[in-house]
Amino acid sequence: MDTQSNIPSGQSDDLVSADAVDSILADLFLTPEGLTDPYPRYERVRELTPVHQTALGHWVVTRYDDVDTLMRHQQGLKDPYRVFAPWLKKEEWPEHAALRRLPDILLWINPPDHTRLRKLASYAFTAKAVRGMRPRIEGMVSSLADRLQEAGSLDYMKEFAYPLPAMATGTMLGLPEADLPHLQDPMRAFQDVYELGLTAEDLAACDAGAAITDAYFTDLVNERRAKPGDDLLSALIAAKDGDDRLTQGELIGMCNLLFGAGFETTTNLLGNGLFALLSHPEQMARLRAEPELIPGAVEEMLRFDSPTQLVNRVVDEALEIGGTLIPAGASVIGLVGSAHRDARRYTDPDVFDVTRQEASVLSFSSGIHYCLGAGLARVEAQVAFTTLLTRFPRLRLDADFDEVRFRPRLTLRGLESLPIAVD
C-alpha cells in the first residue's frame, strides 16, 4: 500500500517520515501480505530511515552494518521479559510452559551466565563432532532422496526439509528416530512464541507444545543420566568446568534449544533455498554444472531469504547506531532480512546469485550469540543440495499444485509447503 497517500498535509517532514515508517512496519508485522513478502517493505523503511523509533517506543534498525553492530555490541543485551508477551507480569511467566524456560536458556541469557553455559555446551558441540556427522547426514539425505525418486512427487517441506534436520539433530542428541515425527508439531507450536505480536490465544498454543517437549526431554535426560550413550546429550550431562555442570533444568532447556533451533531454522534454510533455486532455473543450472559452488550458494540462500528475519536486544547503556543515539533501556529490533538486502553491503542485493562472494550473512547472529549449530546446518544444506541437483536433473515444482505457501510468520521465515516433482 502507498503509506504516503494516507498522511495529512501540513505535517513536518520528520513527522511525515515517522508516520510513513510506522505504517510500513505495521503492514510488515501485522498483515498477511507483509509476512508473505517482507522485502519491499524492508526496502522502503531502509531508505526512509536507517534507525527508527516506533510510536510504541521500540527502535528498529534496518541496515547491514547497524544490525551487525547491534548483535555484536556488549551493550545490546537480551531481555525476554520485554520482548515476549509483554502484557504479562514477570511473576506470571512460571505459569506458562513456553515462557518459563526462556530466561534460563542459552539463547536468551547474558554474560556471565551466558559465558558459563556456552563454555559447557561447547565441550560437546565441537567442530570435530560436526565433521563426524557428515557421513551420517549423507546417508540420511540419500535415504530421503530414494523416497523422492520412488514417489516421483511429494511435499518437500513435509517429506524432506523437516525430516533431515530432525534426524541430524536428533541423532546428535541421541533421540530415537521413531520419536522424531511426534515432536514436530509440539516443537513448532512452541517456536511460535518467538513471533512479535503474540496474543493470549497464540501463547496458549505455544504452552501446549512446550509442555509436551519439556516432558519428553525430562524423561530423556533422566534416561541418559542412568545410562549414558555415545551422543551429545550424554556429553552435555558429563561436561564440566571444574566443579560446574549443567543443572537438570539447563539440560532440558539445552535439549529444547538445540533440537528446536536445529530443525526449525535448518528446515527453513532447506525450503527457502530450494524455492530460490526453482524460481531461478539459470542459477540451478549453474550449480549443476559447477557443484563446487554449492557451499557459497548456501550462503547466498541464507542471505537472499534468511530463515531468521530479525533479532531483539535491549541496550543497557546509551548506544549510537547509524548516527542515532539510542537511549539506555530501549528495546531494539534488528531486521536481519533487511540487512541482507542492503545495497551498501551487497551488489544488486535483490538478485539471487550463487556465485556471490561478499559480506558474511547474519542468519546465525554474530558476536557472543553466534549459533552453536551453524556448522551443522551448513553441512546439512550442502549435502542436501548436492544430492538433489546430482540425482534429479528434472527437479521442478509439481505442476499439479498452483500455490507455494509461506507460513504467516516473520521471525522464523519458512514455507508451509513446497510440492516438487522429479519424474
UniProtKB/TrEMBL annotation:
Belongs to the cytochrome P450 family. The keyword Transport does not apply. It comes from the Bacteria. Pfam families: p450 (PF00067). This is Cytochrome P450. It comes from Streptomyces triticirhizae. SUPFAM superfamilies: Cytochrome P450. GO terms for molecular function: heme binding; iron ion binding; monooxygenase activity; oxidoreductase activity, acting on paired donors, with incorporation or reduction of molecular oxygen. Keywords: Heme, Iron, Metal-binding, Monooxygenase, Oxidoreductase.
